[in-house]
Amino acid sequence: MPQDRPFEWTSENVTAFWDFESTFPDRYFTYHNADGMIRRLSKYISGSEAILDYGCGTGLLLARLAEQGYRVAGSDTSEQSLEATRHRLQGYDTFLGAFTPDALLAEGRQFDAILAVELVEHLHDGWLDHALGNLRRLLKSNGRIIVTTPNREPLENSMLRCPCCRTVFHRWQHVRTWSQASLTDYVEQRGFRVTDAFTTDFSTVETAQEKWQKLSRWKRLKRTLKGRAPKEEPPSSERPHLVVAFQPFV
């Protein structure tokens, strides 16, 4: 019986994978988590003249940002994803277009803030360094990069095996897992200054603790006496999503 072997994620295979997935926008992370993401990331992008979503997929996050008045552009290596993004945002005056990274670099475009949402877990070493170099070139001198990724993802829980060729691969094309320490260390070793790093849960637009803090002291006291105080949030290491914001050293 043939042995299992890992699938090789070449650039052609990655493009083919995401060209196919672009026809199913409801499978995308941002389809389910865009509102929670914008709420937690707004302080990093508010006041930005132009925002780039690097690895924008089908433009789901861009559309939500455009609805809130942000001027946005998208970038992706999948042409079918770019076409889907252009179609989705064609009615927004604040949409600046969707481009491949090479096209943006060739035009010398730069942005105040760059979002790299659920991207770095997909990239092998060479691609990762290349992407970070692109982000540096696309960022204005006083701009900021905001990266999100699964927090301590157990990759083995999402592995599949093709029954025909017996290759094994991650369902969402993830090739690595990150922790707050490892991602912070990675960007700092490449000449960036980390301004913030934390774990969160984007699936909730507003956490129970955030709702609790909005209540008056009297209402909090009454609910506490009735045993209705919110439960403590899970420890940082157990929250599913990781955010690292950073800037180049000037």
Primary descriptors:
7-stranded mixed β-sheet; globular; 3-stranded mixed β-sheet; single chain; alpha/beta; 250 residues; Rossmann fold; 37% helix
Order of helices and strands: EHHEHEHEHEHEEEHEHHE
**Intertermini distance:** 57 Å
* Content of β-strand: 15-25%
Protein structure class: alpha/beta
Strand order of the largest sheet: 4-3-2-5-6-10-9
Number of helices: 9
CATH level 4 superfamily: Vaccinia Virus protein VP39
At the first level of CATH, what is the class?
Alpha Beta
Mean pLDDT: 91
Low-pLDDT stretches? none
Based on CA inertia axes, which overall geometry fits?
A: globular
Total discrete domains: 1
What would you report as the Rg, rounded to the nearest angstrom? 20 Å
CATH topology: Rossmann fold
CATH-scheme architecture: 3-Layer(aba) Sandwich
DSSP, total strands: 10
Please summarize the sheet with the most strands: 7 strands, mixed
Describe this structure in words.
The model has no long low-confidence stretch (mean pLDDT 91). The chain has a single domain (5-205, 236-248), classed as Rossmann fold (3-Layer(aba) Sandwich), CATH 3.40.50. It has 250 residues and is an alpha/beta fold. It has helices at residues 11-21, 29-45, 60-67, 79-88, 101-107, 125-138, 180-189, 208-214, 217-225, and strands spanning 5-6, 51-54, 72-75, 95-99, 111-117, 139-150, 159-161, 167-170, 192-200, 241-248. The strands form two sheets. The chain has a seven-stranded mixed beta sheet with strand order 4-3-2-5-6-10-9, sandwiched between helices. A three-stranded mixed beta sheet has the order 1-8-7, with no helix packed on it. 37% of the residues lie in helices and 23% in strands. The chain is globular and about 60 Å long. The chain contains nine helices and ten strands. It starts with a strand and ends with a strand.
